[in-house]
Amino acid sequence: MAAPDKKTMSTLDAILTQELADLETQHLRRRLQVLEEMLPAGKVRVAGQVLLNLSSNDYLGLATDLRLITAAQAAAARWGAGSTASRLIVGTLALHQEVEEAVAAFKRTPRAVLFNTGYMANVGVIAALMGRGDVIFSDKLNHASIIDGLRLAGAAFYRYPHRDMDHLAALLQKHQQARRKLIVTDSVFSVDGDLAPLRELVALKERYGAWLMIDEAHGTGVFGARGAGLAEALGLTEAIEIHMGTFSKALGSFGAYVAGSAPLIEMLHNKARSFIYSTALPPPVLGAMQAAVEIVRQEPARRSYLLTQAALFRQRLQEGGLETLASETQIIPVLVGDNALALEYAAALRQQGLMAVAIRPPTVPPGCARLRFSLSAAHNAEELSQAAATIVQVGRQLGLGERSGVKGQQMQTAAKLN
Ligand SMILES: *Cc1c(COP(=O)(O)O)cnc(C)c1O
User: Fold this and answer.
1) CATH architecture of structural domain 32-61+300-417
2) Rounded CA gap, 24 and 410, in Å?
3) How far is CA 246 from CA 103, 136, 167, 291, 322, in A?
4) Which of 57, 244, 248, 374 has most ligand 1 atoms within 8 Å of its beta carbon, as the pocket-test mutant?
5) Strand, coil or helix: what is 127?
6) Angstrom distance (rounded) from CA 281 to CA 284
7) Which H or E element spans position 388?
8) In the structure, which protein residues have their CB atom closer than 6 angstroms to any atom of ligand 1?
9) Strand 135-139 relative to strand 331-337: parallel, antiparallel, unpaired?
């Protein structure tokens, strides 16, 4: 590519080029990575190299499942490629209604509504329900879409330290007089792979008259006897007012749901702007959604295999002296600390045929860069065991191991206080 000509470069491009160069210097520049082919057993081809993909959210291996693909094709053949309008205009097909009924049955809530993405669901729900005079309490490690929802809502909001229930209780006490109070949390945290203290959250919200919203983006399909999520696993479905989750991770396709009471769902139809002002999900996606919900119900072996493999994988990393924080799910971080070192680690693993992405600030606090491994039921047990050994070995070569574990504990504390 020719170097940009200073004379013809617009001021916009000149400023952005400088900003990109600054990101590069801080090892914070991000680039798109193109997958050339999806291969069996959770592998992909990138730049001609076959890699074990330890970075996808395809936890149950459904993204390439023939049943989802066939259902998507059949739905397109019957209903078309597009939904032609937004939901409140003429975009609600009988197929949307069928999927929403299937989701409500799956979640065991009275009703459910689909959103086009999890991002849109979080932004739409929080802004629809909360406003001036209200207070929202949000875990510091909640997903970015929740944070954007907080900003959009116009309500006061407080981000409590990660999983710190004492801090949350003090905030609830202080804001007892607020008009509406909403606690919002991920059920499975996407960067640390740990779990929200749902029982304690339910106790607090009941004590202080707050509502509870949980984001099960990483819990749906993975936790619970029927795969409905962490709330199901803990028997807390009815105690939680607002259940949000996605079809884009364990369920292998795209889109999101919010499940709860009839008044909640009907209010979202009326007030959630990301629901109202966007074209309805297209039929092929709805077909895939339907097939995925069926498979999740009927094939519990996928999630039990996933969680068993994740426990083994985590144990092997820990035995190798790596710091996996409080992970107890299919998401397993390895704390590195330094941004450049995290990038170096990821590059070295790639040489060994493993794809893991370095997660850096602002996604994590400064000094807490890490690799994040996410497992899939598509992965072969033998290959996972080999991968764990490679991760430990490469980590050692980079000076991570027993000693970084100690350093890791300190950093974890720092992250909590941040
Ligand atoms: C991925 C994710 C979302 C966003 O879902 P999309 O369907 O990808 O937009 C929301 N919340 C959490 C916790 C997530 O991990």
Assistant:
1) Alpha-Beta Complex (3.90)
2) 27
3) 11, 22, 29, 14, 31
4) 248
5) helix
6) 9
7) helix 381-397
8) 117-119, 122, 143, 145, 186, 190, 215, 217-218, 246, 248, 256
9) unpaired
Q: Which two tokens stand for residue 137?
A: 């309490």
Res 415: pLDDT = 43
- Which residue do the tokens 């013809």 mark? 8
In the chain, where does the domain assigned CATH 3.40.640.10 lie? 66-298
In the sheet that holds 43-46, the strands lie side by side as: 37-39, 43-46, 49-53, 354-355
**Radius of gyration of the chain from its Cα atoms, rounded to whole angstroms:** 22
CB distance 99 to 280 below 8 Å: no
Q: pLDDT per residue over 97-147, tens digit each?
A: 999 999 999 999 999 999 999 999 999 999 999 999 999 999 999 999 999
Dihedral-angle region of residue 351 (phi above 0 means left; psi in -120 to 50 means alpha; beta otherwise): alpha
Beta strands at 242-246 and 211-215: parallel, antiparallel or unpaired: parallel
Phi, psi for residue 253 in degrees, rounded to 5: -130, -100
pLDDT of residue 402: 66
Amino acid code (one letter) for 313: F
Q: What CA–CA distance (Å, rounded) separates 136 from 172?
A: 10
Neighbours of 238 (CB within 10 A): 10
Closest to 184 (Cα-Cα) out of 116, 241, 109, 261: 241
Torsion angle of C-alpha atoms 217, 298, 311, 162, degrees rounded to 10: 20
* Site to substitute for ligand 1 among 145, 150, 194, most atoms within 8 A of C-beta: 145
Residue spans in the chain of domains classed CATH 3.90.1150.10: 32-61+300-417
Q: Ligand 1 mean position to 117 CA, how many Å? A: 7
What confidence score (pLDDT) does residue 418 get? Answer: 33
Mean pLDDT of the chain: 94
Architecture label for domain 66-298: 3-Layer(aba) Sandwich (3.40)
